[in-house]
Protein backbone atom coordinates (compact mmCIF):
# COMPACT_ATOMS: atom_id res chain seq x y z
CA UNK A 1 0.00 0.00 0.00
CA UNK A 2 2.84 2.37 0.77
CA UNK A 3 4.39 3.82 -2.40
CA UNK A 4 5.77 7.12 -3.60
CA UNK A 5 2.24 8.54 -3.73
CA UNK A 6 1.17 7.45 -0.24
CA UNK A 7 2.92 9.33 2.58
CA UNK A 8 4.02 7.31 5.58
CA UNK A 9 4.07 8.57 9.17
CA UNK A 10 5.12 6.64 12.28
CA UNK A 11 2.02 7.68 14.28
CA UNK A 12 -1.38 8.94 13.16
CA UNK A 13 -3.61 10.55 15.79
CA UNK A 14 -7.31 10.91 15.02
CA UNK A 15 -8.84 13.77 16.99
CA UNK A 16 -7.47 17.23 17.75
CA UNK A 17 -8.88 17.78 21.20
CA UNK A 18 -6.92 17.93 24.44
CA UNK A 19 -6.40 14.15 24.45
CA UNK A 20 -5.01 13.83 20.93
CA UNK A 21 -2.82 16.92 21.20
CA UNK A 22 -1.52 15.82 24.60
CA UNK A 23 -0.30 12.58 23.02
CA UNK A 24 1.19 14.61 20.15
CA UNK A 25 3.03 16.78 22.68
CA UNK A 26 4.51 13.77 24.47
CA UNK A 27 5.56 12.20 21.18
CA UNK A 28 7.10 15.55 20.17
CA UNK A 29 9.19 15.48 23.37
CA UNK A 30 10.45 12.03 22.41
CA UNK A 31 11.27 13.10 18.85
CA UNK A 32 8.63 10.77 17.40
CA UNK A 33 6.99 12.06 14.25
CA UNK A 34 3.19 12.10 14.19
CA UNK A 35 0.28 13.73 12.41
CA UNK A 36 -3.01 14.81 13.99
CA UNK A 37 -6.22 14.75 11.96
CA UNK A 38 -9.14 16.86 13.21
CA UNK A 39 -12.42 16.91 11.29
CA UNK A 40 -13.33 20.38 12.55
CA UNK A 41 -10.87 22.73 14.23
CA UNK A 42 -8.76 21.95 17.27
CA UNK A 43 -10.70 21.85 20.54
CA UNK A 44 -13.96 22.03 18.58
CA UNK A 45 -16.03 20.44 21.33
CA UNK A 46 -14.94 23.18 23.77
CA UNK A 47 -15.02 26.03 21.29
CA UNK A 48 -18.32 25.26 19.56
CA UNK A 49 -20.28 22.52 21.31
CA UNK A 50 -20.76 24.35 24.61
CA UNK A 51 -23.50 26.77 25.60
CA UNK A 52 -22.87 30.45 26.30
CA UNK A 53 -22.82 30.23 30.12
CA UNK A 54 -20.79 27.00 30.22
CA UNK A 55 -18.09 26.71 32.87
CA UNK A 56 -16.03 23.91 34.34
CA UNK A 57 -17.56 21.73 37.05
CA UNK A 58 -14.15 20.79 38.45
CA UNK A 59 -11.81 23.48 39.87
CA UNK A 60 -9.21 25.08 37.63
CA UNK A 61 -6.34 23.44 39.52
CA UNK A 62 -7.40 20.14 37.96
CA UNK A 63 -6.48 21.48 34.52
CA UNK A 64 -3.21 19.62 34.04
CA UNK A 65 -2.25 19.28 30.43
CA UNK A 66 1.27 17.82 29.95
CA UNK A 67 3.85 20.25 31.34
CA UNK A 68 1.16 22.93 31.24
CA UNK A 69 -0.75 23.14 34.50
CA UNK A 70 -3.29 25.92 35.00
CA UNK A 71 -1.61 27.43 38.05
CA UNK A 72 2.00 26.91 36.91
CA UNK A 73 2.98 27.10 33.25
CA UNK A 74 -0.28 28.81 32.20
CA UNK A 75 -0.04 31.28 35.08
CA UNK A 76 -3.69 31.05 36.09
CA UNK A 77 -4.55 33.10 39.17
CA UNK A 78 -7.77 31.42 40.32
CA UNK A 79 -6.98 27.75 40.96
CA UNK A 80 -10.11 27.25 43.05
CA UNK A 81 -12.37 28.92 40.45
CA UNK A 82 -14.12 27.45 37.44
CA UNK A 83 -13.10 28.70 34.00
CA UNK A 84 -15.76 29.87 31.57
CA UNK A 85 -15.95 28.48 28.03
CA UNK A 86 -13.74 31.12 26.40
CA UNK A 87 -11.20 30.93 29.23
CA UNK A 88 -10.96 27.16 28.70
CA UNK A 89 -10.18 27.60 25.01
CA UNK A 90 -7.60 30.27 25.86
CA UNK A 91 -5.90 27.74 28.12
CA UNK A 92 -6.01 25.04 25.43
CA UNK A 93 -4.70 27.36 22.72
CA UNK A 94 -1.85 28.47 24.99
CA UNK A 95 -0.89 24.81 25.48
CA UNK A 96 -0.80 24.17 21.73
CA UNK A 97 1.43 27.21 21.28
CA UNK A 98 4.14 25.51 23.39
CA UNK A 99 5.00 23.17 20.49
CA UNK A 100 4.29 22.83 16.78
CA UNK A 101 1.96 19.87 16.19
CA UNK A 102 1.60 18.54 12.66
CA UNK A 103 -2.12 19.27 12.79
CA UNK A 104 -4.49 18.93 9.84
CA UNK A 105 -7.73 20.71 10.69
CA UNK A 106 -11.01 20.27 8.77
CA UNK A 107 -9.85 16.82 7.67
CA UNK A 108 -12.15 13.87 8.28
CA UNK A 109 -10.74 10.39 8.76
CA UNK A 110 -13.12 8.11 6.87
CA UNK A 111 -11.45 4.72 7.32
CA UNK A 112 -8.69 3.04 9.30
CA UNK A 113 -7.61 -0.43 8.15
CA UNK A 114 -5.19 -2.86 9.82
CA UNK A 115 -2.82 -4.29 7.22
CA UNK A 116 -2.21 -8.07 7.22
CA UNK A 117 1.55 -7.66 7.73
CA UNK A 118 1.22 -4.89 10.31
CA UNK A 119 0.73 -1.18 10.14
CA UNK A 120 -2.33 0.76 9.08
CA UNK A 121 -3.94 2.62 6.23
CA UNK A 122 -5.62 5.86 7.23
CA UNK A 123 -8.00 7.25 4.63
CA UNK A 124 -8.97 10.91 4.96
CA UNK A 125 -10.89 13.59 3.10
CA UNK A 126 -7.59 14.90 1.69
CA UNK A 127 -5.84 11.64 0.88
CA UNK A 128 -4.42 8.43 2.26
CA UNK A 129 -1.57 7.81 4.71
CA UNK A 130 0.10 4.70 5.98
CA UNK A 131 1.45 4.50 9.52
CA UNK A 132 2.88 2.11 12.07
CA UNK A 133 0.73 3.25 15.00
CA UNK A 134 -2.74 4.78 15.36
CA UNK A 135 -4.21 6.68 18.31
CA UNK A 136 -7.98 7.16 18.42
CA UNK A 137 -8.66 10.38 20.35
CA UNK A 138 -12.18 11.13 19.15
CA UNK A 139 -13.84 10.72 22.55
CA UNK A 140 -17.30 9.34 23.12
CA UNK A 141 -19.50 12.25 22.03
CA UNK A 142 -20.11 11.61 18.34
CA UNK A 143 -23.83 10.91 18.06
CA UNK A 144 -26.36 12.80 20.21
CA UNK A 145 -28.90 10.44 21.77
CA UNK A 146 -32.59 11.01 21.11
CA UNK A 147 -35.04 8.13 21.59
CA UNK A 148 -37.10 6.85 18.65
CA UNK A 149 -40.35 7.93 20.29
CA UNK A 150 -39.25 11.58 19.96
CA UNK A 151 -40.54 11.36 16.37
CA UNK A 152 -44.07 10.87 17.71
CA UNK A 153 -44.14 14.22 19.53
CA UNK A 154 -46.40 16.86 18.02
CA UNK A 155 -44.25 18.74 15.46
CA UNK A 156 -45.36 22.12 16.82
CA UNK A 157 -43.24 21.40 19.90
CA UNK A 158 -39.62 22.31 19.10
CA UNK A 159 -36.97 19.72 19.97
CA UNK A 160 -33.25 20.38 20.47
CA UNK A 161 -30.29 18.38 21.77
CA UNK A 162 -27.88 19.90 24.27
CA UNK A 163 -25.08 19.82 21.67
CA UNK A 164 -26.94 22.52 19.73
CA UNK A 165 -28.05 24.55 22.75
CA UNK A 166 -26.46 27.96 23.36
CA UNK A 167 -29.01 29.97 25.36
CA UNK A 168 -32.75 30.04 26.15
CA UNK A 169 -33.55 32.55 23.38
CA UNK A 170 -33.05 29.79 20.79
CA UNK A 171 -36.29 28.14 21.92
CA UNK A 172 -39.78 29.61 21.53
CA UNK A 173 -41.61 31.36 24.36
CA UNK A 174 -43.27 29.03 26.81
CA UNK A 175 -42.15 26.32 29.17
CA UNK A 176 -39.37 23.86 28.37
CA UNK A 177 -39.13 20.17 29.20
CA UNK A 178 -35.50 19.24 29.88
CA UNK A 179 -34.87 15.50 29.66
CA UNK A 180 -31.90 14.29 31.71
CA UNK A 181 -30.25 15.40 34.92
CA UNK A 182 -26.58 14.86 34.26
CA UNK A 183 -24.22 17.82 34.43
CA UNK A 184 -25.58 19.34 31.22
CA UNK A 185 -29.25 18.97 32.08
CA UNK A 186 -29.09 20.60 35.50
CA UNK A 187 -26.92 23.49 34.32
CA UNK A 188 -29.20 24.19 31.37
CA UNK A 189 -32.09 24.05 33.84
CA UNK A 190 -30.51 26.97 35.69
CA UNK A 191 -30.14 28.90 32.43
CA UNK A 192 -33.88 28.74 31.81
CA UNK A 193 -34.77 29.54 35.41
CA UNK A 194 -32.57 32.64 35.27
CA UNK A 195 -34.29 33.65 32.03
CA UNK A 196 -37.64 33.51 33.82
CA UNK A 197 -38.83 30.50 31.86
CA UNK A 198 -40.98 27.70 33.25
CA UNK A 199 -38.98 24.47 33.54
CA UNK A 200 -40.19 20.86 33.61
CA UNK A 201 -37.44 18.35 34.37
CA UNK A 202 -37.49 14.63 33.64
CA UNK A 203 -35.23 13.36 36.42
CA UNK A 204 -32.97 10.46 35.51
CA UNK A 205 -30.69 8.26 37.64
CA UNK A 206 -27.67 10.59 37.70
CA UNK A 207 -25.95 10.91 41.10
CA UNK A 208 -25.11 14.24 42.70
CA UNK A 209 -22.16 15.55 44.70
CA UNK A 210 -21.55 18.12 47.41
CA UNK A 211 -19.67 21.21 46.29
CA UNK A 212 -18.27 22.89 49.40
CA UNK A 213 -18.13 20.66 52.45
CA UNK A 214 -16.43 21.17 55.78
CA UNK A 215 -14.57 24.24 54.62
CA UNK A 216 -13.27 23.06 51.24
CA UNK A 217 -14.43 21.99 47.83
CA UNK A 218 -15.39 18.32 47.96
CA UNK A 219 -13.02 17.55 45.07
CA UNK A 220 -10.11 18.91 47.14
CA UNK A 221 -10.91 16.49 49.95
CA UNK A 222 -11.31 13.58 47.54
CA UNK A 223 -8.00 14.39 45.85
CA UNK A 224 -6.15 14.47 49.18
CA UNK A 225 -7.80 11.21 50.20
CA UNK A 226 -6.44 9.47 47.10
CA UNK A 227 -9.84 8.93 45.51
CA UNK A 228 -8.66 10.07 42.09
CA UNK A 229 -5.70 7.68 42.19
CA UNK A 230 -7.96 4.60 42.20
CA UNK A 231 -7.53 2.75 38.90
CA UNK A 232 -10.27 0.85 37.10
CA UNK A 233 -8.34 -2.37 37.87
CA UNK A 234 -8.52 -1.73 41.62
CA UNK A 235 -11.97 -0.12 41.75
CA UNK A 236 -14.37 -1.96 44.10
CA UNK A 237 -17.18 -1.72 41.52
CA UNK A 238 -15.69 -1.28 38.04
CA UNK A 239 -19.02 -1.84 36.24
CA UNK A 240 -20.62 0.99 38.18
CA UNK A 241 -17.63 3.24 37.52
CA UNK A 242 -17.81 2.60 33.77
CA UNK A 243 -21.58 2.96 33.40
CA UNK A 244 -22.59 5.59 35.96
CA UNK A 245 -23.45 9.09 34.77
CA UNK A 246 -21.23 11.87 36.10
CA UNK A 247 -22.24 13.41 39.42
CA UNK A 248 -24.05 16.68 38.94
CA UNK A 249 -23.06 19.95 40.56
CA UNK A 250 -22.09 23.36 39.19
CA UNK A 251 -19.10 25.68 38.90
CA UNK A 252 -21.32 28.70 38.25
CA UNK A 253 -21.03 31.73 40.55
CA UNK A 254 -17.92 30.31 42.20
CA UNK A 255 -19.32 26.80 42.53
CA UNK A 256 -22.47 25.37 44.03
CA UNK A 257 -24.19 22.08 44.59
CA UNK A 258 -27.48 21.28 42.88
CA UNK A 259 -30.33 19.89 44.99
CA UNK A 260 -33.28 19.36 42.65
CA UNK A 261 -35.67 19.30 45.59
CA UNK A 262 -34.49 22.79 46.49
CA UNK A 263 -34.90 24.00 42.91
CA UNK A 264 -38.49 22.77 43.00
CA UNK A 265 -39.17 24.59 46.27
CA UNK A 266 -37.30 27.82 45.48
CA UNK A 267 -37.84 28.18 41.73
CA UNK A 268 -40.90 26.09 40.92
CA UNK A 269 -39.07 23.60 38.69
CA UNK A 270 -41.58 20.81 38.02
CA UNK A 271 -40.05 17.38 38.59
CA UNK A 272 -41.08 14.08 36.99
CA UNK A 273 -39.60 10.62 36.72
CA UNK A 274 -37.69 9.36 33.69
CA UNK A 275 -39.34 10.14 30.37
CA UNK A 276 -40.73 6.92 28.89
CA UNK A 277 -42.78 7.85 25.81
CA UNK A 278 -44.29 10.61 23.67
CA UNK A 279 -47.38 10.65 21.49
CA UNK A 280 -48.74 13.89 20.10
CA UNK A 281 -49.01 16.21 23.10
CA UNK A 282 -48.92 13.34 25.61
CA UNK A 283 -45.75 12.82 27.65
CA UNK A 284 -45.38 9.65 29.73
CA UNK A 285 -43.03 9.20 32.67
CA UNK A 286 -41.82 6.25 34.72
CA UNK A 287 -42.84 6.25 38.40
CA UNK A 288 -39.22 6.60 39.55
CA UNK A 289 -38.95 10.25 40.63
CA UNK A 290 -38.72 9.47 44.34
CA UNK A 291 -36.23 6.68 43.71
CA UNK A 292 -34.02 8.84 41.49
CA UNK A 293 -34.03 11.74 43.96
CA UNK A 294 -33.28 9.37 46.85
CA UNK A 295 -30.47 7.66 44.92
CA UNK A 296 -28.91 11.02 44.05
CA UNK A 297 -29.06 12.03 47.71
CA UNK A 298 -27.58 8.70 48.75
CA UNK A 299 -24.60 9.42 46.51
CA UNK A 300 -24.37 12.95 47.95
CA UNK A 301 -24.39 11.71 51.53
CA UNK A 302 -21.96 8.92 50.65
CA UNK A 303 -19.37 11.42 49.44
CA UNK A 304 -19.84 13.46 52.63
CA UNK A 305 -19.34 10.29 54.69
CA UNK A 306 -16.20 9.46 52.73
CA UNK A 307 -14.79 12.93 53.45
CA UNK A 308 -15.79 12.68 57.13
CA UNK A 309 -13.93 9.38 57.41
CA UNK A 310 -10.79 10.86 55.83
CA UNK A 311 -10.89 13.85 58.19
CA UNK A 312 -11.33 11.57 61.20
CA UNK A 313 -8.54 9.18 60.16
CA UNK A 314 -6.08 12.03 59.81
CA UNK A 315 -7.17 14.09 62.80
CA UNK A 316 -7.84 17.15 60.63
CA UNK A 317 -9.41 20.19 62.24
CA UNK A 318 -12.32 21.06 59.95
CA UNK A 319 -15.64 22.81 60.62
CA UNK A 320 -18.65 20.60 61.24
CA UNK A 321 -21.64 20.52 58.89
CA UNK A 322 -25.30 19.89 59.76
CA UNK A 323 -26.71 16.56 58.58
CA UNK A 324 -28.46 16.44 55.24
CA UNK A 325 -32.24 16.83 55.31
CA UNK A 326 -34.74 16.58 52.47
CA UNK A 327 -36.54 19.87 51.84
CA UNK A 328 -39.29 18.28 49.73
CA UNK A 329 -40.78 14.93 48.84
CA UNK A 330 -42.99 14.24 45.80
CA UNK A 331 -46.58 13.72 46.92
CA UNK A 332 -47.28 11.46 43.96
CA UNK A 333 -45.65 9.97 40.89
CA UNK A 334 -47.05 11.75 37.84
CA UNK A 335 -47.07 9.28 34.97
CA UNK A 336 -48.63 11.43 32.25
CA UNK A 337 -48.69 15.08 31.19
CA UNK A 338 -50.34 16.97 28.37
CA UNK A 339 -47.58 19.22 27.04
CA UNK A 340 -49.96 21.68 25.43
CA UNK A 341 -52.04 22.09 28.58
CA UNK A 342 -48.85 22.52 30.63
CA UNK A 343 -47.60 25.28 28.32
CA UNK A 344 -44.59 23.29 27.13
CA UNK A 345 -43.43 24.63 23.77
CA UNK A 346 -40.04 22.90 23.54
CA UNK A 347 -38.10 19.81 24.60
CA UNK A 348 -34.36 19.86 25.26
CA UNK A 349 -32.62 16.49 25.22
CA UNK A 350 -29.69 16.12 27.64
CA UNK A 351 -29.35 12.35 27.78
CA UNK A 352 -25.88 12.01 26.33
CA UNK A 353 -24.08 10.72 23.28
CA UNK A 354 -22.83 7.53 21.67
CA UNK A 355 -19.39 7.10 20.10
CA UNK A 356 -19.05 6.29 16.40
CA UNK A 357 -16.43 3.70 15.50
CA UNK A 358 -17.97 2.43 12.25
CA UNK A 359 -15.01 3.76 10.26
CA UNK A 360 -12.48 1.62 12.17
CA UNK A 361 -11.71 -1.76 10.57
CA UNK A 362 -9.55 -3.16 13.37
CA UNK A 363 -10.48 -6.06 15.65
CA UNK A 364 -10.44 -4.15 18.94
CA UNK A 365 -14.14 -4.12 19.90
CA UNK A 366 -16.25 -6.39 22.09
CA UNK A 367 -19.69 -7.76 21.22
CA UNK A 368 -21.33 -4.49 22.31
CA UNK A 369 -19.04 -2.42 20.11
CA UNK A 370 -16.96 -1.04 22.97
CA UNK A 371 -13.19 -0.81 22.53
CA UNK A 372 -11.06 -3.27 24.48
CA UNK A 373 -7.80 -1.99 25.93
CA UNK A 374 -5.50 -1.80 28.93
CA UNK A 375 -4.77 1.84 29.75
CA UNK A 376 -5.57 2.66 26.14
CA UNK A 377 -3.30 -0.01 24.63
CA UNK A 378 -5.20 -2.68 22.69
CA UNK A 379 -4.14 -6.26 21.93
CA UNK A 380 -3.65 -5.30 18.29
CA UNK A 381 -0.07 -3.98 18.02
CA UNK A 382 0.09 -0.26 17.33
CA UNK A 383 -3.58 0.55 17.96
CA UNK A 384 -4.56 2.74 20.91
CA UNK A 385 -7.28 4.87 22.50
CA UNK A 386 -7.02 8.02 24.63
CA UNK A 387 -9.43 10.45 26.25
CA UNK A 388 -12.13 8.00 27.33
CA UNK A 389 -13.68 7.84 30.79
CA UNK A 390 -11.89 5.49 33.16
CA UNK A 391 -9.16 4.71 30.64
CA UNK A 392 -7.19 4.27 33.86
CA UNK A 393 -8.60 6.51 36.61
CA UNK A 394 -11.52 8.86 37.27
CA UNK A 395 -9.43 11.65 35.75
CA UNK A 396 -9.15 9.89 32.39
CA UNK A 397 -11.25 11.74 29.86
CA UNK A 398 -10.92 14.86 32.01
CA UNK A 399 -8.23 17.48 32.41
CA UNK A 400 -7.02 15.92 35.65
CA UNK A 401 -5.79 12.65 34.18
CA UNK A 402 -4.76 13.54 30.64
CA UNK A 403 -1.12 14.28 31.51
CA UNK A 404 -0.61 10.87 33.10
CA UNK A 405 -2.57 8.99 30.44
CA UNK A 406 -0.91 10.66 27.45
CA UNK A 407 2.57 10.31 28.94
CA UNK A 408 2.00 6.60 29.52
CA UNK A 409 0.61 6.06 26.03
CA UNK A 410 3.51 7.89 24.39
CA UNK A 411 5.91 5.65 26.28
CA UNK A 412 4.07 2.54 25.06
CA UNK A 413 4.12 3.81 21.50
CA UNK A 414 7.86 4.45 21.70
CA UNK A 415 8.46 0.95 23.07
CA UNK A 416 6.37 -0.68 20.36
CA UNK A 417 8.11 1.27 17.62
CA UNK A 418 11.49 0.35 19.06
CA UNK A 419 10.53 -3.31 19.37
CA UNK A 420 9.37 -3.39 15.75
CA UNK A 421 12.58 -1.70 14.63
CA UNK A 422 10.69 1.19 13.10
CA UNK A 423 12.28 4.56 12.42
CA UNK A 424 10.24 6.96 14.55
CA UNK A 425 12.39 10.04 14.92
CA UNK A 426 11.73 12.85 12.48
From TrEMBL:
Q: Which of UniProt's keywords are assigned here? A: Oxidoreductase
Q: Name one GO molecular function term.
A: flavin adenine dinucleotide binding
Question: What is the annotated signal peptide range for this record?
Answer: none
**InterPro entries with a match to the protein in the record:** Auxin_biosynth/cation_transpt, CHP04046_FMN-dependent, FAD/NAD-bd_sf
Protein's recorded name: FAD dependent oxidoreductase
